[in-house]
Amino acid sequence: MAAPVAARRWRGLWGPRGGASPLRAFATVIPKVSQVDNSSDFLGRVPHRRHPGVLHLKTVQLPAELVKAAQLLVEQSTMQGLKDKVEGLTNYLWSRKRPLEATELQRRGVQLEQQLRETLRPRTEDPPGPLTDAEEQRLQRRVLNRLRKTTYHWEELRYTEELSLVYMAARLDGGFAAVSRAFHEIRKRVPAFAPRTLLDFGSGTGSVSWAARTTWGDTLSEYLCVDSSAPMLALAERLLKGGAEAPLFPGVHFRQFLPVSPKVQFDLVVSAFALNELPSRAQRGETVRTLWRKTDGFLVLVENGTKEGHQMLMEAREIVLRGGDKVAHDPREAHVFAPCPHHLPCPRLSPERSLPCNYLQRYLPLPFRWNPALKGELFSYLILRRGPGPEGGPEGEGQAPWPRITQAVLGRARHVHCHLCCADGRLEHAVITARRHGRDLYRCARQSHWGDRLPVTTPPGEAAVGDDGEAPPGLGAGSAAPVG
After folding, report:
1. CA torsion sign, 195 to 199 to 201 to 203?
2. What DSSP state is assigned to residue 275?
3. What is the architecture of the domain spanning 59-96+157-386?
4. Virtual CA dihedral for 352, 354, 357, 358, nearest 10 degrees?
5. Which residues pair with 378 in a beta bridge?
6. Each residue's pLDDT tens digit, 377-418
7. Architecture of the domain delimited by 25-53+400-482
8. CB 428 within 8 Å of CB 476
9. Where in the chain do CATH 3.40.50.150 domains reside?
10. By the 8 A CB rule, do 293 and 262 touch?
11. 25 vs 327, which has greater pLDDT?
12. pTM of the model
């Protein structure tokens, strides 16, 4: 999904640029309690376009060595129809769903059998009599046929040498872009974090190691890439060497299994686009618990920006936050570092309308003839951290975390629309103006992007008071004001 398409869609919803918004009357307005005047210095000498909540990356570019290595592998291959295979695999991976659990399949079968049984019972009898053996067999065949047509059939992907090359051509650049965006947020918000060890579960082409190397450089001295596919590990090693004998950077180790000892921990643990390769929810849960045991600093999970990807991440979030791991050797608690500003249930998973929490990262794709000059990766991510919570960060001691911008920011004449996920677990649609909220906050909002955090705080003990003396709906229970 390209950014211009999304922008046109939103323009169609909100009307022509500069015109009155038909939905503006239904928007939540940040309460006007405190306002930073034009002489305020909460930004210091930092321009508004670089305010403390800015986290987006402009356009991600793969390392030149990695691009050359990928091109060399494609040139050396004798595979025919690579373009069509890349498009087919890309579409398949994007539309892939989680495997259906056995209990859910059984529930559907019983429900369907009850519905079909009514159609086979003789209507002349009151009450209807039992079905004959022939009718029972016919009923079971109809149930099985209907289940086959209406149930998603998950299949394990076995990455042979050929399929590994197709996956590299299809997903190396997009995966690198998504993981780079997640790493960028850690580095931006916690500049003192300097990981020395990295564990990449489901490493695939090794794009996580390349992204970590690009982000933290020589700080990392050990990379452990774990993937069950031997051909995929061989391809990742060839990419790392770039056609030479020695690897392009040292310290990378390839394994087919995770380290056995539960006491072995890594500063940074990553699983990118790997949870959906597991055949059941139980195995996903056990894998997440194992990865969390091995996390000393940050656990980064990245999936497709679909409902399925988002729901898998929310499953993992619940597992880690719930705790209860009896074999854990690290007593430090977990907290959600990004993108959620809270530990409450995700407001986008409402029973009425479930929407994925996803973000868009632009990147320069591999220079194959079928690729455009610029592409966008729509992804969902979750970053969990051991140790201290968000208190004491840029928000200030005791302040609620800044809200996350969950959609494209809509700039209109003298006002800005921001869709926010707030610290109280609610989704808010805020309309920000310079007259009501001050020039600095207005300009910060106007310069913000999808995925940034808006630097407004909720001071403890203060109530939001509107012009009529009552508390209007806003960014949580307190007042919203630029951080100062």
Report:
1. positive
2. G
3. 3-Layer(aba) Sandwich (3.40)
4. -140
5. 360
6. 999 999 999 986 654 445 554 567 899 999 999 999 999 999
7. Beta Barrel (2.40)
8. no
9. 59-96+157-386
10. yes
11. 327
12. 0.83
